[in-house]
Here is the input.
Amino acid sequence: MTSQSPAVAKNKMSLNCRSILAFRLSATLFALLLCVGCQSGSISRSKLAASQLQVKFDGLESTRVLTSVCASGATPRQWTKRPTEKGAIYTHEQWRSPTGVTSVGVVYVHLPLPIGPAAILWLAEQHFAAMPGETGHVLAAWTDALGRSWFTAQNPKCSICGYIMTEGASAWIVYYGYKLDRGLQPGELSVAARSVTTIIPLARASDQPAASLLAQTAQD
Here is the structure.
């Protein structure tokens, strides 16, 4: 058996590492390019706004701009807003009920390339399943008449229901859910379900003042 010098072994290890990194980068870019072809069409804000007007606002705040997640909507009244979570490509806002059982959340995702709802749902499921000690998975997925891609998911700790909307390189995951070990709170869940249906994404939220965004949403 021929032994290798430390320099040769080091070079091979370096080459292997570069190969692995190159493969991962290629796979990521390939996946993103595939997503470009499956992106959804432009969201009709006029239809979303019309749908919002049909919602009973009992238990909800007035509709307002949710600047950090580039959306507008009505959050549950007297629910506690959790600290904002931020990552390299996302911002997550969540409101929790007084009992601590039920939550409403909005995740705003911005990527360098356009991406479709199916890809966002897949990424969300991978994150859900990768949580320490969890085994989460999507139970069902469907699309409503407004073009929102709905899903239900569950892990040993919680059950959630929500929808995904995409536009260009931006995506919104709007959801509500409850902790399984604390039991279902029907009243809270009803308020939460109504709240998420009021959420409307705002285009180019970082480029325009809040007042203009509201006017645009109402007139679009």
User: Anything to note?
Assistant: The radius of gyration is 21 Å. The mean pLDDT is 73. The chain is about 35% helix and 30% strand.
